[in-house]
């Protein structure tokens, strides 16, 4: 595998899309405005990484996960916690405040443990030593959110600088870091659309078969229902009646202006529909909407 130099994520496009969708969908405006603050921080952190981090090309997901430059990362954690205390909801503010009271060694433990397991079954489901001081009911979810949001630009940086592995249309986990997919994406190809999956950790996209459940491998079409709401014609809920999981998919053949990770945040009614029909999401997005 050869090292690939790419432009990386377009944070400005994400910010502009979040502003647009917040104006269109009032029910998700608060979430999208909060995401805008996160994206601004991520843009700044990503810009710091570009000139300073050089890594060997990974031969496997294990190698990808071994690349964690704590010296370049943890020094930015207090700034991120301070931001959350100014722009977050009450639970997020309290979680960030409690984490800010801990010492750098606790942050290093927290970041390292998350990086090793993120996107895999059971990631951050049990409390770690670094998060024991948070209120019990919120500790796991809020800690996972904070660390995930903090590490996402680093994971994207690594993914953008590694050449994509050979295309295999049946990878159920990310071929770079072995995380579960968070989203599907349909991109224009010929007269139709080609399906890709989007990684929940590094946001790498890889090709995937259209009629195939990425969770259990079901390929019987009548067991793979698709739901589309009138207010979100370009967003699909692709469910599986065998395993009862679903994948939300952004259809760029219907709206080429969409930014998948941002449009996904705005689709709260689709989450309610899936819950009512007893489908579980394979991997939540950053804000669990």
Can you tell me about this structure?
- This protein is of the alpha/beta class and 289 residues long.
- The chain has two domains: 11-160, no CATH class; 181-281, no CATH class.
- Helix content is 42%, strand content 13%.
- It is built from ten helices and seven strands.
- It has helices at residues 11-24, 29-49, 61-66, 70-73, 77-87, 90-100, 104-117, 136-160, 260-266, 268-276; strands at residues 181-189, 192-199, 205-207, 226-228, 235-239, 245-251, 280-281.
- Strands 1, 2, 3, 4, 5, 6 and 7 form a seven-stranded mixed β-sheet that branches.
- A hairpin with a 5-residue loop joins strand 5 (235-239) and strand 6 (245-251).
- Helix 6 packs across helix 8 (136-160).
- The radius of gyration is 19 Å and the shape is globular.
- Residues 1-6 and 122-138 have low confidence and may be disordered.
What does the average pLDDT come to?
A: 87
- Tell me the structural class: alpha/beta
Strand content is 5-15%
What profile does the largest beta sheet have?
7 strands, mixed
Rg from Cα: 19 Å
The ordered string of helix (H) and strand (E) elements is HHHHHHHHEEEEEEHHE
The coarse overall form would be globular
Tell me the number of strands.
7
Total number of helices: 10
- Separation of termini? 36 Å
Instruction: Please estimate the helix content.
Output: 40-55%
Assembly of the depicted chains: single chain
**Stretches where pLDDT falls below 50 for ≥5 residues?**
1-6, 122-138
The domain tally reads: 2
